[in-house]
């Protein structure tokens, strides 16, 4: 059964600056602790990642995932191509400019291939949602403000 969640945060940066941080997927493990390694397998003509292999550790499980990214001017989404511990994953950021800030909404839906107790799954998902929003905000501020 699929589990989904969403979370919003406001970041003091432009959508372009935020998308640039997200596009630097090789650097994701430095600000998102569940990602242990990220390698771009394929890029679009503009240099943005298309297929990415990630080594992920969450809820006591380690997994290798291949994700395919789709980029827009105000959003980025990804979908699971392959993994050992997940049947499916769809996630993404939607960015809405708000003056000199940007409202960032992160949505994720996962379907585990292995059973996990509900409280373990909820705790892991909550941690992932916090990192995907608060961790991203900290990384964007670090990159933008130096």
From TrEMBL:
Stored InterPro entries: Polyketide_cyclase/dehydratase, START-like_dom_sf
Protein origin, superkingdom: Bacteria
Pfam families (alphabetical): Polyketide_cyc2
Listed PANTHER family: COENZYME Q-BINDING PROTEIN COQ10 START DOMAIN-CONTAINING PROTEIN, CONSERVED PROTEIN TB16.3
Protein name according to UniProt: Cyclase
Organism of this sequence: Mycolicibacterium duvalii
């Amino acid at each position: 059964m699929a589990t989904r969640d969403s979370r919003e945060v406001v970041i003091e940066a432009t959508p372009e600056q935020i998308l640039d941080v997200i596009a630097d997927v090789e650097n994701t493990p430095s600000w998102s602790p569940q990602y242990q390694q990220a390698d771009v397998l394929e890029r679009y003509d503009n240099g943005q990642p298309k297929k990415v292999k990630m080594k992920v550790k969450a809820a006591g499980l380690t997994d290798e995932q291949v994700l395919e990214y789709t980029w827009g001017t105000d959003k980025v989404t990804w979908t699971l191509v392959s993994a050992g511990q997940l049947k499916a994953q769809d996630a993404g950021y939607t960015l809405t400019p708000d003056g000199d800030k940007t409202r960032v909404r992160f949505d994720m839906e996962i379907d585990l291939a292995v059973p996990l107790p509900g409280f373990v799954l909820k705790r892991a998902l909550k941690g992932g949602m916090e990192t995907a929003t608060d961790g991203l905000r900290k990384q964007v501020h670090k990159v933008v403000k130096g």
